Amino acid sequence: MSGRILIDGVATGLVPADDRGLAYGDGLFETVWVEAGRPRLWPLHRARLEIGCARLGLLCPDPAVLLDEMRQLTSDLPQAVVRLSLTRGSGPRGYAPPVVAQTRRILAASPAPATNPALLAEGVRLHSCATRWAIQPALAGLKHLNRLEQVLARAEWSDPGMSEGLMLDMDGRVVSATAANLFAVIDGRCLTPALDRCGVAGVARAWLLAQCPQIEVETLYPDDLQRASELFLSSSLRGVVPVAALDARRMGPGPWTRQLQALWQAMATDAAVVDGKVET
Amino acid sequence: MSGRILIDGVATGLVPADDRGLAYGDGLFETVWVEAGRPRLWPLHRARLEIGCARLGLLCPDPAVLLDEMRQLTSDLPQAVVRLSLTRGSGPRGYAPPVVAQTRRILAASPAPATNPALLAEGVRLHSCATRWAIQPALAGLKHLNRLEQVLARAEWSDPGMSEGLMLDMDGRVVSATAANLFAVIDGRCLTPALDRCGVAGVARAWLLAQCPQIEVETLYPDDLQRASELFLSSSLRGVVPVAALDARRMGPGPWTRQLQALWQAMATDAAVVDGKVET
Known about the structure:
The structure is a homodimer. By secondary structure, chain A is of the alpha+beta class. The first copy, chain A, has helices at 20-24, 42-56, 63-74, 117-122, 148-154, 203-211, 222-226, 255-269, and strands spanning 5-7, 10-11, 14-16, 27-35, 38-39, 79-87, 104-111, 124-128, 162-168, 174-177, 181-186, 189-192, 216-217, 230-235, 239-246, 249-250, 273-274, 277-278. In chain A, the strands form 3 sheets. In chain A, strands 8, 9, 10, 11, 12, 13, 14, 15 and 16 form a 9-stranded mixed sheet that branches. Chain A has a 6-stranded antiparallel sheet with strand order 2-1-7-6-4-5. In chain A, strands 17-18 form a two-stranded antiparallel sheet. In chain A, strand 12 (189-192), helix 6 (203-211) and strand 13 (216-217) form a beta-alpha-beta unit. The longest helix of chain A is centred in the first third of the chain and has 15 residues, at 42-56. The model of chain A is unreliable at 274-280 (pLDDT under 50).
């Protein structure tokens, strides 16, 4: 285990066994790319945390404290990834949330993984997963700690050349990849599935939707993907990633993918970008 | 935090922060009543753990080790409750299960809560929850660590006189209470909902079904419960508990409830019952 962990501000890699995150998955998380001490797209991460806390009835810590802890953990890393988890803290046995629950902050940093240029140039192969997202509007969109469906979906393949999985919901609608959001270009329109019934509303997806109002949120079925001229994924760590194949069907990155990759790249490499806004 | 905790056999109350149970709810648990060092209905708990491990692809620890650890933790307690969790252990960031995952055992014991005779005599009040169970056959029946739905359902009421909540699935079928299984007596038949689409298949429910083959597993809707002459709950800690009221509708414990309470009581108080079988 890495030593780069702060739990409620204390440098320790150990969590009390009665933590409700461990007991029930009672909490939320974010995976944040930190560039020279600056968490990329932090306002979007922070907004998702605040919405998640409100929906789960968790007390949200002061964002300034979270920001400070991310900086402490990554001060000697030019590029880092921080997993930031919030749990409902310690509590006695039983589902009932404690009347006075103390939200626990668990931040773990690691050096950022090297970007794979081939992956961005050529794209990833997508496996159609048998495991589906259950429909649960009460939790939809949140990056909460109940992630067994994605664990089971990701366990469906071990081929290292197959880097992502396509997941449908219980009604057979397209939702996302296992750890990224999905976009499809169909008849010249760029579409991404709605996430009000299940799925994780990614920060990179939110950024793309805000930057590019032409992208439409729409219901998609697997048959629609067969007609797509382009498919691509978004992830706050990997950015915009083309899909090179969906199962046996091969495809090449097209103009929408290239344009949004360029847009992401401009944001990601602009050292002056702080908190998601370009400083003057 | 109680000192009665063993993690992989070591007396510590601290879990590594990279545990996948904490990161993704990637694991299972059991809540076991231990009477004079003997875990009640252990073969049923063990069977559910083994089924859960098979379905999640976890390596199941030797049951003899679990049994020994439960006894160590409860040696000076006449009656205890042990929460026994199994997680996929530590792992790097990412949903993909590690190729070689070491299942982590987390056992925490506490003195058994005092039985409330009024609760068993008169019954509990049941609140109809707005939060529903998502339909997810891949996880249905298991007591896994993804329990946010029950946390949200249980958070719907704070009236201490209201002790349980009725939960439906997304299609409006009756599933269970938030922390107990449900039985309804309708037209003289004793019925309990199927749990192959969602819900937790409780050990007490399994025991009652095995003891009493007249109990039928059937699809139930809220309207059916309005016609029920009796409702009762089953839980491995509380046994058979009558329902005294469903929202505004009051009802009294009937003959089915009383008979199954007596059956449970005979099992629970028979000191010679070991491993669910009566010793000669």
